[in-house]
Amino acid sequence: MGSRxxxxxxxxxxxxxxxxxxxxxxxxxxxxxxxxxxxxxxxSWIGSDPCxxxxxxxxxxxxxxxxxxxxxxxxxxxxxxxxxxxxxxQTVDLSYNKELTGSLPSSIGxxxxxxxLILVGCGFTGLIPDTIGSLQQLVFLSLNSNNFSGPIPPSIxxxxxxxxxxxxDNQLSGTIPVSNGITPGLDMLVNTxxxxxxxxxxxxxxxxxxxxxxxTLIHMIFDNNKFTGNIPTTLGLxxxxxxxxxxxxxxxxxxxxxxxxxxxxxxxxxxxxRLTGPMPNLTDMNSLTYVDMSNNTFDVSNIQPWFSSLLSxxxxxxxxxxxxxxLDIGSRVRNQLKLINLxxxxxxxxxxxxxxxxxxxxxxxxxCEEVGREREKxxxxxxxxxxxxxxxxxxxxxxxxxxxxxxxxxSPNYHFNRTEISRIGFVLSNQTFKAPKDFGPFTFIGxxxxxxxxxxxxxxxxxIIIGAAIGGSVLxxxxxxxxxxxxxxxxxxxxxxxxxxxxxxxxxxxxSGGIPQLKGARSFSFQEIKKYTNNFSEANEIGTGxxxxxxRGTLPTGQLVAIKRAQHGSMQGGxxxxxxxxxxxxxxxxxxxxxxxxCFEQGEQMLVYEYVPNGxxxxxxxxxxxxxxxxxxxxxxxxxxxxxxxxxxxxANPPIIHRDIKSNNILLDERLNAKVGDFGLSKPMVDAExxxxxxxxxxxxxxxDPEYYMTQQLTEKSDVYSFGVLMLELLTAKRPIEKxxxxxxxVKQMRDKTKDLYNLHEIxxxxxxxxxxxxxxxxxxxxxxxxxxxxxxxxxxxxxxxxEIENIMQLAGLxxxxxxxxxxxxxxxxxxxxxxxxxxxxxxYSEGFPPPKLEP
Length: 856
Known about the structure:
The chain is an alpha/beta fold. The protein contains 14 helices and 40 strands. Among the domains are: 186 residues, Ribonuclease Inhibitor (Leucine-rich repeat, LRR (right-handed beta-alpha superhelix)); 95 residues, Phosphorylase Kinase, domain 1 (2-Layer Sandwich); 241 residues, Transferase(Phosphotransferase), domain 1 (Orthogonal Bundle), CATH 1.10.510.
């Protein structure tokens, strides 16, 4: 009788466990649909109970799925419309899975409980569905860095709880929608703090109705669009603003006087527009730290230096305008004001009563043309020294982490599981955690955490409670059952952890440092690489150099990859290799070759890159690839390479100096879009090295910055010089140094601005025209020669180069933001032969060489 009772209680207990964990059938079917259309799903996605079996990235409440958090998992496929069946879903984070493509299903509007939709850095295309306005609980909407096109849906205005709206870095077009009594608009988003719309193709006037005194907006980022018309006066009503970016548009007219009421704004960028009228007086904006209003047509006489009295201002840029008359700095300049850039104006008089540390730039003003004045300090500071964009996040070196003993939290008895660690990262990265005043927004990068809790702990405790309720004998039996279950689950968790952890074989005891922190890259085993390359067969060898060899490989998914294998004599130390893969894994841009993974075992160091099918630009220019490049195509290649390099300098974290920009390292994809490749010589720039870093000279002769060679001081302007040489190579198809002649000097000597094509017919590539006019040719040459100025400060930044090439393309009748509609086959003379990587490609290590001997 007693054994029957024990057996009955045991059955009831097991049923309690099963029922408590069982995922409802509808949610299970929806997840299986996603698993069916996605590749590279986590290995733990097995079994028929996602909630009970703890599928990685899946969060549940009772039997319902409430979150999908699979950032940087290398997922491939599309977002199935069946996701709408997850009726209790609150959070979706699929960021940095760039192979997630296709359109966003309109059925996503059925997820009425969704509060966080975060799809940063994926490959989604098409329209943003209007049904997104049905997500009434949405707080965070981050769709930036995709390929969405078409207008901003007016229905977003219905999202009354929205805090964060980020649509930047897409291909959105049309005007900003505002309400009209029938349809909603963004003016209804009075609780939203972030409008991030930069780097799109939005056009028309910025509607005055968009702004009101009820708004709580703190970041208004509208840069790099096509907005026209005046800056609306209603903008002055939004007194919560901290950052205002309207730069790189086509705005016109005067700046509204009530902009002065935005007393909390810290960064104001209005540069590269068509703004006119008097220089605005922003005296009351005492929180300003950075102001850039360059490249407009402001006009005023007898400048009143109100900017010198602002308490927080460090940088003031008003270059390339029409300021005229007298400038009297007087003694009112604050010590924190480090730069006043008024170059290229019409200033005829200048008075400075005290010699301060403030750098004043008056180059290209009439005062600097007076005899004797040209030697004044303010007339000698060269052009292009100050970048016109800024970061408004805390530099990483300003944050010192607090270390905990034994790589644990303060309580040594509490361990986190993977889900908890993921949730901590989500809370920080999506800004649900409110930072103290004067901090944030910020980015969360979690360290590896090795002490994951046993997933069966909760079950174990439940067994104790139930066992205690039915008596000692049942308790013993249940504890035994729970122990067996816990042991089984622990072994299963360990196997899953080993499968999911790409660093399980990383040996921290061999001077290779701690486990790397990667974003979107994975670890491959040596056996996997052997299989993908057919045991490193000669047939798959596509390049070789001082570092080692490059092999073509095929992943099980069918994706082609380029595998760079170091030969043993040239391998880096473990720490250096870890640093390189950490750096490259953070680089995600359509004009930069992507690192997919690495192999670090059995004495091997290998990097796995995306395969770029049409080889290097050098091969196309030399005729080796048999791809014909006309003028339009060369402009697009120049723009793509410039955008990739600008990303490395200004948006990568930390910023990266490539150090080896050349035609061999610009690769062309199937549509001949340019991608910057080979980071073997790249140098990350930490905050302490923002001006320059002294380093051993490395690079390729002919592209090397002469000032870097002479001083050994490296800055991003060294890359700008190399890019200028690359532009001349695009024009001439000549190597930088050929038969002792240096292409830069040759162009300088031959260029005659009074003649057609600057008198450069003799050295131009004969195939560049292909029967069409070379529209914008002269401006392209001028830009190239600006890049190769002898003095670094005289050179432009890469963002300035990007903007000028875009202008040249528009002059030539091209849309700089449109993808090429033609594949490489449209430009091939005959079918391609050979492999896409030359023997020099992806490798170059030149150091300690003498300066080149050039013929005059």
